[in-house]
Structures are given as C-alpha cells and as structure tokens.
Please model this.
Amino acid sequence: RKEVEQDPGPFNVPEGATVAFNCTYSNSASQSFFWYRQDCRKEPKLLMSVYSSGNEDGRFTAQLNRASQYISLLIRDSKLSDSATYLCVVNLDRGSTLGRLYFGRGTQLTVWP
Amino acid sequence: EAGVAQSPRYKIIEKRQSVAFWCNPISGHATLYWYQQILGQGPKLLIQFQNNGVVDDSQLPKDRFSAERLKGVDSTLKIQPAKLEDSAVYLCASSLEPPPSLSYEQYFGPGTRLTVT
Model:
C-alpha cells in the first residue's frame, strides 16, 4: 500500500465552481501535512500546510482528519489560473532521524472558461 | 532571493551511458534533496543531505546512482550506467530546516528532464 493515495482525476470544472480533492495516508505516525501545486512541466511549489484545526488561505481550505488519516483541499470560486496538479504531501517522522516527505501522485485540475 | 538552480535542463542519452546532474541550493539552506519524478507520479525521494552528510539514501539505487554534496553546498547526482526506466525529471530541493520543523518548506529547482533511449 502506498504511503499517500490520491485520486488522479482529472477534474474538469468551470470557472467559479467549487472543487474538493481528497487524500489518504497509511502511516498514523505521520506528523506534518502539506498541499503542493505543480504546473505543467514546472517544479512543485508549496500551496499550504495543513493544520490539525484546519486552515484557510483565501479561496483555499485544507482539512485534516487524523482519526481517518484523511486530508482534503477545497477550492472555492475556481479561476483559470488554478489549473494545475495538486500534490498531497505527508511527512513521516522516523524517530530520531529526520523526517521524509511522501508525495501522492497528484490530482490534475483543469478550470475552463 | 535566488532559487534552487539546476543544470542541465534537458538531457538525452542512450542506455548504458553515464549522466550527471548539478544542483545549487538556496544560500544558507542546510538540507538538500534529490527526487525522481516519473511521468504521472509524484516526486520520490532519492537522497537527502544535511550539510554534507547523507541522512537518507534508502531509496537510491546504489548500484547505478551516486550523489555527493562536497562542502555542504552544491550537489551532483550521477547515473552510471543509465537504463530506460531512469527516464524521468530529476528535481533538486532545499530547505532551511529539515522536517518536522514547524517552519519547514522545501523549495524545488526547475528539474532536469532525462530521456534514456
């Protein structure tokens, strides 16, 4: 079983729509959670960290459910510029050694006019 | 602030040839990572350095891949000999602090797109 599982999509939505991505992780010892964005043929960039209490950044809302080992990202009022691949990322603390990031395969989003 | 620099941006080689990639992290970043991203997949960590020491190379195919970070700054990743399945984008990333620091963030370079024929 992979450490991080994501629905690869693609998700095709019109401008102004609300879209949600889900992600599950396998290791309950995971400590930190992130969403990265990757544009076509570009490098990944941090979109937002995911906190236990949930957090919001403008049109983006991230939620964490530790009991179900589940992370979500909600995008409201989608813009054309939101078209990208969204990577769910989990940090697994390996005790005294440094943590390692595990990336999901990404969910592809296309917003059309 | 200058980002993570990588070169070359593209490389095409034949199988069994050798190839090397170079990475210059953001100034002051102690932690450096090399990832392999195969088309349609997320990045997979190959090796992680803390300054010039290796802290994780468990997923590095050591029979053909090697990496070094001399003087704790620049890093090179080498493949010798290359196989068809090595075709991928090789991403270098750096961070000021290693995870699980609360202020942790990885900054990625533009990557090197390798095609093995």
